Amino acid sequence: MIIRCADHSLDLSKPRVMGILNVTPDSFSDGGVFIKPSDAVKHAVRMVEEGAAIIDVGGESTRPGAQSVSLQQELDRVIPVIEALSSVLSVPISIDTSKPEVMREAAVAGAGMINDVCALSAEGAVEAASELQLPVCLMHMQGKPRSMQQQPRYDDVVADVSCFLQQRADVCIDAGIPAQHILLDPGFGFGKTLQHNLLLLQNLENLVSLGYPLLAGISRKRMIGQILDERETDQRLYGSLAAAVIAAMKGASILRVHDVRASVDAIRVTTAVMNQ
Ligand code: 8Y4
């Protein structure tokens, strides 16, 4: 119920909010390609003040169609930010990466959790997570970010995702990662049509029943835009809140969001009702 994240702990006895900190050139740069760590730190501190229980730092855009970044580029973006954050934040830092080298350097810099949209499928990633002794979030994705939204296809999306996540958890356990360090995530929007995403949210209990804490990332995603007649990303807050509340009611432990204050309020109300 409480997971140890390096120097911090994360109490999952009720649903928590993870604040998203993107350190890509479209955020926290001076208009050029360099990230300003001080701006990133300000945003992270504000998210913690607003109630975030963990901050997810990512330097590689995993949006559909996005191009991948080199190892050095990703390190240059995230490591200075994690170093700056780890001395000021009172909550754990999660590193959003699929590269074992980034996992290792991020851990040295102070990261307390690994968030991998590739579920540790890169060569050496399972070993890195095992050696670092950090909790790891294993996410489901069909295909690769560049092409995953072209023809998503499943026989039974809930069963397929459940089976995949169970298999990845087993691989982790066989590599010596303790079960208490494993979190699972259906990967909303990662190689899924709107109908697939809706079925996964409707049947989230099914994934929670695998016995690991579940993380759900729905905030501002295309599925919200699609439900709301192609609403733009900056107009998806209320839809995102509805989805976060549904996920929490179905047993999700962590909601990965952009809008921390609003999400924390919505989740607190949800929790108050659930605990009655
Ligand atoms: C607007 C803003 C539209 C953001 C789309 C997006 C997840 C994740 C991402 C997730 C976990 C994203 C790194 C995609 N999504 N990690 N990462 N779960 N564990 N798109 O669902 O936020 S990035």
Written description of the protein model:
With 276 residues, this protein is of the alpha/beta class. It has one domain: Dihydropteroate synthase-like (TIM Barrel). The chain has ten helices and ten strands. It has helices spanning 37-49, 71-86, 100-109, 125-132, 157-174, 194-202, 204-208, 222-227, 237-249, 260-274; strands at 2-5, 8-11, 16-22, 54-58, 93-96, 113-116, 136-139, 182-185, 215-217, 254-257. Strand 3 (16-22), helix 1 (37-49) and strand 4 form a beta-alpha-beta unit. Helix 1 crosses helix 2 (71-86) and helix 3 (100-109) runs parallel beside helix 4 (125-132). The mean pLDDT is 95. Bound molecules: ligand 8Y4. The site of ligand 8Y4 has 17 residues, from strand 7 and strand 9.
Topology:
Layout: E1 2-5, E2 8-11, E3 16-22, H1 37-49, E4 54-58, H2 71-86, E5 93-96, H3 100-109, E6 113-116, H4 125-132, E7 136-139, H5 157-174, E8 182-185, H6 194-202, H7 204-208, E9 215-217, H8 222-227, H9 237-249, E10 254-257, H10 260-274
Parallel strand pairs: 3-4, 3-10, 4-5, 5-6, 6-7, 7-8, 9-10
Antiparallel strand pairs: 1-2
Residues 58, 62-63, 96, 115, 117, 137, 139, 185, 187-188, 215, 217, 220-221, 233, 256 line the site of ligand 8Y4.
N to C succession of SSEs: EEEHEHEHEHEHEHHEHHEH
Separate helix tally: 10
Fill in the CATH topology.
Answer: TIM Barrel
Attached small molecules: ligand 8Y4
**Uncertain runs:** none
Write down the Rg.
17 Å
- Sheet bearing the most strands, described? 8 strands, parallel
**Averaging pLDDT over every residue, what do you get?**
95
Task: Give the CATH level 1 class.
Answer: Alpha Beta
CATH superfamily: Dihydropteroate synthase-like
**Percent of residues in helices:** 40-55%
Number of strands: 10
Strand order of the largest sheet: 8-7-6-5-4-3-10-9
Shape: globular
Distance between the termini: 19 Å
Oligomeric category: single chain
The share of residues in extended strands comes to 15-25%
User: Helices and strands: which structural class?
Assistant: alpha/beta
**Which architecture does the CATH hierarchy give at level 2?**
Alpha-Beta Barrel
Question: How many domains?
Answer: 1
